[in-house]
Every structure is written in C-alpha cells, then in structure tokens.
Amino acid sequence: MRNVVFTLLVAGAVLSFAAGQASVDSKLQGQLKQVFPGASGFSLKGGSPPHFTAFSDPGSKNVAGFVFWTTELEPLERGYDGPIKMLVGLDTKGILTGILVVEHHEPYGDFSVEPPQFAAQFKSKNIRDPFKVGGDIDAVSRATISINSATRAIRNSARRIARQLLTPDGQVK
Hints:
The protein is globular. It has 173 residues and is α+β, with helices and mostly antiparallel strands. The chain has one domain. The chain contains 5 helices and 5 strands; from the N terminus they run H-H-E-E-E-H-E-E-H-H.
C-alpha cells in the first residue's frame, strides 16, 4: 500500500511538472517578446544550455535566435548581494536583441542595474564586443560590483549560447 501511494505521489508530481511545461505563461511570454521583439513565437525552454528558441515567422521553424536566463548559464556569477537574474535575447548573427533585469537584491540596484538605461545599452551589441565597464558599458559610481557582475553574466552567457548553438557564419547548428 505504501508503495502504491508513493508511486501515485511521484506520478502526480511528474504530471504537474509536465503540465507546467506545456506552454509558456503569459507573463513569461511578454518577457520573451520584450527581449526579442522581432520574434513571432517561442519554443518551450529546453536544450543544452537551457534556452528558448525564437522563431521569425508565424507557424514556421525559421530560427531567429535564442532567449536565455543568465542565472542558468552563469550560476556562479554574483553581484554585490547575490545573483542578478536577467533574460537575454540573442539573434543568429550574435547580436543582442534585448536584456531584461527580472530580479536582483543589489543595495544600489535602483540606480545601477534596475533603470531601463542599463539594459538598453546592450541592445544591438555584438557578442564579439569587449563588454568593458567604463569603455563600451557605462560605469555607475557606488555600484561597481553589480555593474561588472551583470555585464560579465550577459557577455559570458551570450557567448556560451553562441558557441553551443551557432556556427561562426551565423547558422544554427
């Protein structure tokens, strides 16, 4: 009897998890569209490294790029007060399509990683760019650790996605 109950509990948990993966909720759908505005739709998250695939045409399988969480690709990257969870869009040419800071616990986040200007400076940036704070990325006084960490997380995770999923000439592997 105990084994039957345990089996039913495990089966229920698996089915609940699978049902939660069956579609992208509307909040996440909006976030995906925000970081990859040119996409007509998105896949469920999957693959290695974990990502959402962005499609260019409605109902087609033409890949426009990928969207991913920095915290899943660079889990050890920490700001001043922990990880900075960001959603990043990357097209097939290695160009960032958008960044969205979703969660952080930075004491100076309200004037460093939280303002829209922080994310906006990454839009249209090539992954081959240096991503140097104080150079091609704006520095923010009193938020050096947060800005440096967020910048490294974006750069490293985008480059990892590109290495794993794209060829040097911008084709999907």
